């Protein structure tokens, strides 16, 4: 079913791209836009994950360079029955994370240093389980390709004036078409991104909680991330806003409300849903609110091999190493 949804989404984004081409250059512009969109779809399928990781200056790590972080991902992937994804770290103070890749066999997960420094190993497990849920649900291809096409559509809309200013552009709507392309294209691309992220985050939250075994690990992590993300500027995300919907929490400052222009559901609503799930599972409830100055660490109702419970105490710098 997800394959059908992905195909429909890519077809819709391609049609939107062609529509912008028509507004700018008429039939010829639409034909050119179709050719560009077809090439981008093919390129995005194979390379969009690498592009997104490069945009955010992610570096790959392994069991030697980031032992604890890498082990957390490995053990969660095993619990979920997934192949081991590539693991990346992003040098950024804003706590956040995302997953990418065209399928589970070619997936990658990335976490910022801000997330790894601020969260407990249990909370890191909750976040990475959420990202692995996106991989398992095959959301990553849809989200990554959409980020690429949405960025291209927005860019085409921004340059509509220059592309459509020629008299021989065959634009049947003239200056009105160019103006519509400049206004409608970025807005439409943003709406598509919002629809994708907002409907899939709740599903990934629930499946991620099942993978890690305790919904409150993720709930506590979301509270901490939301509290810090709004006060920390993510420069790479601000430069590439088309990728915002891929992150577990909106990385763009000032867009946390659960309204029309939010790329993510309201964090408190997500925490409430996880708390309800914890009650269903019998896990220890932890009060966690993104509005709190500091969220309490989640307790492990079902300690996993990534938990500190049962491990010999030893000095450590953080859950990434």
Share of residues in helices: 55-70%
Our count of helices gives: 10
- Low-pLDDT parts are 164-168, 255-261, 284-318
Strand content: 5-15%
| Class inferred from helices and paired strands | mainly alpha
User: How many domain units?
Assistant: 1
* Main sheet record: 4 strands, mixed
One letter per element, helices H and strands E, the order comes to HEHEEEHHHHHHHH
Please list the strands of the largest sheet in the order they lie side by side: 1-2-4-3
Give me the count of strands. Answer: 4
Termini gap: 39 Å
What is the global morphology?
A: elongated
Mean pLDDT: 76
- Nearest-angstrom radius of gyration? 21 Å
Biased composition (Low complexity): 292-305
InterPro entries: HtpX_protease, Pept_M48_protease_HtpX, Peptidase_M48
Membrane topology: Multi-pass membrane protein
Subcellular location: Cell membrane
